[in-house]
Design goal:
single chain, alpha+beta, Deoxyribonuclease I, Chain A, 3 domains, eight-stranded antiparallel beta sheet, eight-stranded mixed beta sheet
C-alpha cells in the first residue's frame, strides 16, 4: 500500500510540474513517464557512475556514486571543498545500488560518515522526467547543524598544460626523445630528488582543486617515456592522491613509433572511457607540400593527438586533446615551418572527423588542448572556429565550431604569457552536438579561466601578473663547480660530436635547479555541461539558451595589458629586514608589498644564475630584481604601451630595462618599491614601473641604456 501511495505522489508531483509548461501532457502520460523514469534510473545506477555537484556560499559540494565492479560493493564519495582555503573534507562509504536508489527517490537517508547523513528534501522523479537531468535538493545533517543544498548532474571538462610533467625514472626515455630535454637528463638537474617530484605532484593536485575537481581533465606536456610514465601507474603517489578526490581512470596517450616525441597528452577522469591516438606524422597527406628536409625537421615535433570517447547511458561524446608545435623559432624560415606544421594539425583533425564521423547528427565533440595558436590565428580558423554561437546551435554547418574564448570580453581572453603579452594558446571548441538537446549540452557562460579571479588568482598568478610557472634556475656549465657535472658534460658533448664553442642548441648544456614552487605557464580552462542520455524520455529537453556575444565578430584585438595591482598604503609592508623570506614560508609573504630605502648606504647589485640577474641582500634575505612586462619589447611611456611587438627591443621597454640594467655587474640600489614574488626560484621584488626604483653608481654600459630617466647619476 505504501508503495502505491508513493508512486501516486510522484506522478502528481510530476503532473503539477508540467501544468505550466507549453509541452505539458495529460495525467496518464505523466504516470507512464514517471514509471519509466524510475525503471531507467534503476538500470542506470547499476552500470554507470553519477556525479552531482553544487555550491553554497564558499563551499563546493560533490556527491559521487561508483557502481559495484570486480565483486566489490558500490561506493559513495562526498567531498566538501572549501574554496577560500582549497581544503577538502572527504567522506566515503560502501553501499549497495539499491540503497543509493532509495536515496535518489526519497526512500531513505544516506549516511556518508558516522557523523553526517544526507536527506532528500523532495521527490527526484519529476525533475528527472522533465528534462533528463538529475537534480536533487537535500539536507546535510550533522550533530551540530542542518544545511540545505542543491546538487545537479553536471559534467565539467577542463584542459591544462602541466608544463613538462615528467616522472621519477631517468632511464625510461630514449636518447632520441631526450634530444632537447637535458633538463631531465640524470645529473643535469635536481629533478630526480624525491622531494622535488612530490612538490610537482602536490602543486598539480592544488590546481585540480582550484578547478573545483572537474569530471574530465585533458592534460598536455606529460612525459611519454615510451608509454611507461610512472605517475600514471597504479600505486603511484600521483594516482593515489587523485583517486582520493574521485578520479578513477587515467589514460596516457599513446604515440606512434614514428614519433620520437618525449611528451604526450593524457586524461584523468571520473568516468570510464576509451582513449586512442589520432596519428599525426610527416607521412600524412597534410605534409605533402613539405620538402624532404622540412619533413625531417618537423618529424621531431609531431605528436599524435588523443581522442577520448565516453559512452554514457547510451549517448556518446568525444574530446580531441592536442599539443601542437610551439611558436618558438629563431628565424623567418623556421617560423614559417612552425606555422605550416600547426596548419597540418588542423587539416589532420578535419580529415579525421570527416572520415570517422561524417555528418553524424548526434556527434558531441570538443576540441581542446594547447594548440600554440591564438584564438584568431589561421590554424584555429582552419578548424572551423567561430564566434557565432547561434550559427553553431542552428546545426546547419557541421564543420563550424563555437570557440569558447568568445564567451569572454576581449580584455579577458588570455591564459598564458607569450612573447611578453597575454595570449590564448590553449583552446576549447564545441561542435553543434553540444547544443542539440542530446548528450552533452553546454551550459551558457560557464567557460572560465581559473586564476583570473578569486582565491585561485592568489595561487596561480605571480607578482608580475602572469601565470606563476614551475620555478627553475639555470646555470651555464662553466658556472657549476661540481666535478661530476663537469665530467658528465664532457662525456655528453663528446657523444654529440660538439666542438668547442659550438652554437648548436644541444652543444650548450646547462644545469637546472628546481625549488618545488610554482605551477605551470598556462592557466586551466574549464567549461560545464548538462547531460541527456539515451535512456531518458525527455518532455522538455534541455537546450543551451544564450545571449549572443557583443564581441562575437571581433577578429583582431589589441594586446592585453598584464593585470597587476600596484602597492597602495593600505596594503601594508613586509619588514624584510627582520622577517625571514624563503620558499618554506611562501604563503606569509608572496604577493605582499615591500619598500626599501637605503639612501645613506646603497645596497650593491650582485649577480646570480645564467643571465647574471641582479639581486640585493637585505638582512639575511636575498631578493632578485625584476619588473612587469620584462619580456615585452614594446615601448612603455606614461603607463601606456606603444607599438606592436617585433624583433626589435625598444629602448623604452621594460624588457630593455630588465635585460640591460637589472642584469650584469655593477651598480647600487638606493630605493625600491614593489611586490614580493619569485624569479628563477629566488624571492624577488617585482616593480610595477621604472619609477619604483632608484639606482646609483652604474657602470657605463648600464648608465647609457634604456632611457634611464630614473637612474640617479648624481651619486
Amino acid at each position: 500500500m505504501k508503495g502505491i501511495i508513493f508512486f501516486l505522489l510522484m506522478a502528481v508531483s510530476f503532473f503539477i510540474n508540467h501544468l505550466f509548461s507549453s509541452d505539458s501532457k495529460d495525467l496518464k502520460s505523466a504516470l507512464v513517464d514517471a514509471g519509466k523514469m524510475e525503471k531507467q534510473y534503476r538500470e542506470m545506477v547499476v552500470k554507470y557512475p553519477i556525479h552531482l555537484r553544487g555550491q553554497k556560499e564558499n563551499i563546493r559540494y560533490l556527491l559521487s556514486w561508483y557502481p559495484a565492479e570486480n565483486g566489490k560493493r558500490g561506493e559513495i564519495l562526498f567531498i566538501s571543498l572549501i574554496l577560500s582555503s582549497n581544503v577538502e573534507q572527504i567522506e566515503r562509504t560502501k553501499i549497495d545500488s539499491s540503497k543509493f536508489l532509495d536515496f535518489l527517490f526519497k526512500k531513505g537517508t544516506l549516511e556518508v560518515s558516522k557523523s553526517k547523513r544526507l536527506l532528500p528534501q523532495g521527490p527526484l522523479l519529476a525533475k528527472v522526467a522533465a528534462d533528463g537531468q538529475i537534480e536533487v535538493a537535500l539536507s546535510i545533517i550533522t550533530d551540530k547543524e542542518k544545511l540545505e543544498i542543491h546538487l545537479a548532474h553536471k559534467i565539467v571538462v577542463a584542459s591544462l598544460n602541466a608544463l613538462n610533467f615528467w616522472d621519477g625514472n631517468p632511464n625510461n626515455t630514449s636518447e632520441e626523445q631526450m634530444y632537447i630535454y637535458d633538463i631531465f637528463r640524470a645529473g643535469f638537474s635536481n629533478w630526480y630528488d624525491p622531494e622535488i617530484q612530490k612538490a610537482k605532484a602536490d602543486n598539480f593536485i592544488t590546481q585540480v582543486k582550484l578547478m573545483q575537481l572537474p569530471e574530465i581533465i585533458a592534460l598536455q606536456e606529460i612525459e611519454y617515456a615510451n608509454g611507461q610514465n610512472e605517475n600514471f601507474k597504479e600505486g603511484s603517489y600521483f594516482r593515489i592522491a587523485l583517486e582520493k578526490l574521485g578520479y578513477r581512470y587515467f589514460y596516457l596517450g599513446n604515440q606512434g613509433k614514428d614519433n620520437p616525441t618525449a611528451l604526450t597528452c593524457a586524461y584523468i577522469s571520473k568516468y570510464p572511457g576509451k582513449n586512442e591516438a589520432i596519428p599525426f606524422n610527416v607521412d600524412l597527406p597534410a605534409f605533402k607540400s613539405f620538402s624532404k628536409k622540412e619533413r625531417e625537421i618537423a618529424h621531431y615535433t609531431t605528436r599524435d593527438m588523443q581522442l577520448f570517447s565516453l559512452e554514457y547511458t547510451g549517448a556518446k561524446f568525444h574530446i580531441i586533446n592536442n599539443h601542437w608545435r610551439s611558436q618558438g623559432c629563431d628565424d623567418e624560415r623556421n617560423c614559417d615551418l612552425s606555422l605550416r606544421v600547426r596548419k597540418a594539425n588542423a587539416e589532420t583533425i578535419k580529415n579525421f572527423i570527416a572520415s570517422n564521423y561524417g555528418a553524424e547528427e548526434k556527434l558531441d565533440l570538443i576540441i581542446t588542448g594547447d594548440l600554440n595558436a591564438s584564438f584568431n590565428d589561421t590554424p584555429i580558423s582552419l578548424l572551423g572556429s567561430s564566434g557565432r554561437e547561434d550559427m553553431v546551435q542552428s546545426g546547419k554547418d557541421p564543420a563550424l565550431y563555437y570557440n569558447l574564448w568568445y564567451e569572454l570580453p576581449p580584455s579577458e581572453r588570455w591564459e598564458v604569457s607569450h612573447g611578453g603579452q597575454l595570449d590564448t594558446l590553449a583552446q576549447m571548441l564545441l561542435n553543434r552536438g553540444n547544443y542539440d538537446s542530446y548528450g552533452l549540452q553546454y551550459v551558457n557562460n560557464s567557460f572560465s579561466v581559473v586564476g583570473h579571479q578569486g582565491y585561485a588568482r592568489s595561487f596561480l598568478l605571480g607578482a608580475d601578473g602572469t601565470p606563476f610557472r614551475w620555478q627553475e634556475k639555470r646555470y651555464r656549465a662553466e658556472q657549476v663547480l661540481d666535478e661530476k657535472f663537469k665530467k658528465l658534460v664532457a662525456q655528453t658533448l663528446s657523444k654529440r660530436g660538439c666542438s668547442i664553442n659550438s652554437s648548436k642548441r644541444n652543444c650548450r648544456p646547462l644545469y637546472f635547479e628546481f625549488f618545488g614552487a610554482g605551477y605551470t605557464d598556462h592557466l586551466p580552462l574549464v567549461a560545464e555541461f548538462n547531460f541527456i542520455g539515451d535512456i531518458f524520455s525527455t518532455i522538455n529537453p534541455i537546450r543551451t539558451n544564450f545571449t549572443p556575444s557583443a564581441t562575437a565578430d571581433v577578429k583582431e584585438i589589441a594586446g592585453i595589458d598584464i593585470p597587476i595591482e600596484t602597492c597602495q598604503e593600505k596594503d601594508g609592508l613586509v619588514d624584510v629586514k627582520n622577517v625571514k623570506i624563503d620558499l618554506k614560508n611562501l604563503s606569509e609573504w608572496f604577493l605582499k608589498c615591500v619598500r626599501i630605502e637605503e639612501k645613506n648606504a646603497p645596497l650593491p647589485l650582485k649577480i646570480t644564475g645564467m643571465y647574471d640577474t641582479n639581486y640585493i641582500e637585505v638582512g639575511s634575505n636575498k631578493f632578485a630584481l625584476t619588473i612587469v612586462h620584462a619580456f615585452d619589447p614594446r615601448e612603455i611611456k606614461d603607463g601606456k604601451i606603444f607599438g606592436l611587438p617585433d624583433d626589435r627591443m625598444d629602448a623604452g621597454s621594460n624588457m630593455c630595462f630588465a635585460r640591460k640594467i637589472l642584469q650584469g655587474e655593477g651598480g647600487k640600489l638606493v630605493s625600491i618599491s614593489g611586490r614580493l614574488g619569485i624569479m628563477d626560484g629566488m624571492p624577488a621584488i617585482v616593480l610595477a614601473e621604472r619609477a619604483d626604483i632608484i639606482l646609483a653608481d652604474l657602470p657605463y654600459n648600464k648608465a647609457n641604456s634604456c632611457q634611464r630617466e630614473i637612474i640617479d647619476t648624481d651619486r
